[in-house]
Amino acid sequence: xxxxxxxxxxxxxxxxxxxxxxxxxxxxxxxxxxxxxxxxxxxxxxxxxxxxxxxxxxxxxxxxxxxxxxxxxxxxxxxxxxxxxxxxxxxxxxxxxxxxxxxxxxxxxxxxxxxxxxxxxxxxxxxxxxxxxxxxxxxxxxxxxxxxxxxxxxxxxxxxxxxxxxxxxxxxxxxxxxxxxxxxxxxxxxxxxxxxxxxxxxxxxxxxxxxxxxxxxxxxxxxxxxxxxxxxxxxxxxxxxxxxxxxxxxxxxxxxxxxxxxxxxxxxxxxxxxxxxxxxxxxxxxxxxxxxxxxxxxxxxxxxxxxxxxxxxxxxxxxxxxxxxxxxxxxxxxxxxxxxxxxxxxxxxxxxxxxxxxxxxxxxxxxxxxxxxxxxxxxxxxxxxxxxxxxxxxxxxxxxxxxx
Amino acid sequence: xxxxxxxxxxxxxxxxxxxxxxxxxxxxxxxxxxxxxxxxxxxxxxxxxxxxxxxxxxxxxxxxxxxxxxxxxxxxxxxxxxxxxxxxxxxxxxxxxxxxxxxxxxxxxxxxxxxxxxxxxxxxxxxxxxxxxxxxxxxxxxxxxxxxxxxxxxxxxxxxxxxxxxxxxxxxxxxxxxxxxxxxxxxxxxxxxxxxxxxxxxxxxxxxxxxxxxxxxxxxxxxxxxxxxxxxxxxxxxxxxxxxxxxxxxxxxxxxxxxxxxxxxxxxxxxx
Lengths: 404, 272
What we know:
Chain A is an alpha/beta fold and 404 residues long. Chain A has helices at residues 37-42, 78-86, 118-128, 133-147, 162-175, 192-207, 219-225, 243-255; strands at 4-7, 10-13, 16-30, 49-63, 67-71, 93-98, 102-105, 180-184, 211-215, 228-233, 236-241, 261-263, 268-276, 285-287, 292-305, 307-314, 320-325, 335-346, 354-364, 370-383.
């Protein structure tokens, strides 16, 4: 019996497709791997390794027809989890039950033989994925079409470009039509049009009721395509649930560690950077439409002619939202020596909700020499009244003319 | 075990496809392609004829057609040694695949054996044609060829399952196999007839010698492909106990090798 429950716009059943119960996976980290018999004999007493738990106490039920994304920083156990699901590795603890056929997009084109043609490799690769010939025949043409390889399909794979290679691999994996599809970071490859095609295919698979487990670094992608998001941290489940909530919390946690850098010859040193609100109080949270003052305190160790001070705001993907400097604003500073203050006064912030990073810099007029550049070392939060969506607010009058 | 066999059966097409791949790839980019498998024994025959028939003038131990005797033993031996050499590192050499896709790993070593059997069959075909052409009489035993092939496959598969699984953990095995095969070759009656052992060594030494299952298998090949009475009774040596021993040992090796392979399989991906 299938009891359907609704997630977003789609129906997801209560029938489990993948069940992980108390799963733990332990690796032996060898100090210096003893691979030869001699070393093994000599060091038989010493335990030449340390235990490392890549996954611990993971409980997860993926329901039929559901799309789950697994996010987490590097080394959090995402890929290990996927490998356990496919059966490539066995868990040391707990159990994994799968219901239905599984295909994994772990590494596209794994198992391609360079000396065989694309066509021959399709047969080989499909059988590696567990597809029988009779099941392959009807989708064979689809695979070739989807890969966009055209006449190259009869060329040896060794002559393919990296992109062609991956396209063929993806095309096979996505067309073999498994009940459960495991995807690991593969959407990061291929050009934009191919990526769009892949996303489109994934949403079609979702519509046709396939179960998908997606592992990705890209939390925003996870939020966009999944029904639930699982956040792994150091091999444990940190959070599991509504994509928006999890991804928000994830971003929150990730951004508390801004990984700023600084460089420059330090003829001018930017000693401190302050973000002040309308009343001149240091703050980290601002509201859209309110003022923000960026105050830099600098010290010039020796007299510097004609320097330029500037700053930039970046969103969490690293894109510059806004930036300017004293040269662009035609504020000439003939010469600095000793300490001083530069203030950038923004009377009304235009950005909508989000976390923004701040870079500040002092450099020469032509920008060839940096005195001091602090790259994304500071951040602040913007909250907005919620009247607009997108990145920015703008003045916008609405006029309505009733007909007549 | 039953589970594993079921899985292996499900992936039978993969085994076939990998075998076909090996066959295709071996002679890819060569002009006459898989004809090499057939040219190979012809050339060997020529070389042996010149070496033993003309240079050494060796009618070895009273055999008139020594080249054919040699060929009938050396083809199955080469088949065995090639299968083993390739399959011992089968899992390790396909590390990429093993780490990234799930499928029963035993298809890897088995596919190399499959590809080697294809070449072997072509070579045997050439041998039979040559025997007919040079009017070396064939016996009805020739029809036992499929059975004998099966026996050798069981033995080779058993051994290579052991070696390829253990080789993941101890890479020494692949190097050791190389040397071991060289030694093994000389304690198998390929170059010299079995009568040589029987006549020059005491009975207890012969008994130890006969513990080598490959000796029995090679003897059987010589028996079915080269059994001319002109070569004396020893060339047609056949012992029932030896045959039974080889069968029992081969089946045991295959079963225990498969068991071991399945036990270790789950740890391949992390060790490679």
